[in-house]
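Researcher: Next entry in the queue.
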Amino acid sequence: MPHKRNGHLFSLSSILPHIILIAIIIGVYYYLSIHNLFPMWIDYIDDGGKIVIALLIILASARSALMPIITLLGGLLILFTIQVYDITLVSSVEGWGLIVMSLVGLFITTLVKW
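Model: Structure for this entry, 114 residues:
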């Protein structure tokens, strides 16, 4: 029986489209927020963007274990900058959400790759 190849465990090229889509979603949200476009809908746009980003993290985690690691580092960086430098670009709730998503991603990577 031939070995089924799922790609490399830490492949960056397989998750690059997901990272680009996440960056586009974050950029569009901040553009809309800074220029005060759709002020009545910005909370719904924020929630929808978070849902899409979570789904992209899950999909990218199925392809490579690098995405949960990047997500974990991002969440820890958010919490670190809030705690040490008192810089709150995003809330600590979003940092903890990224950490939880990285744990879910590592679980999915484990299911898919092994």
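Model: The mean pLDDT is 92.
Researcher: Noted, moving on.
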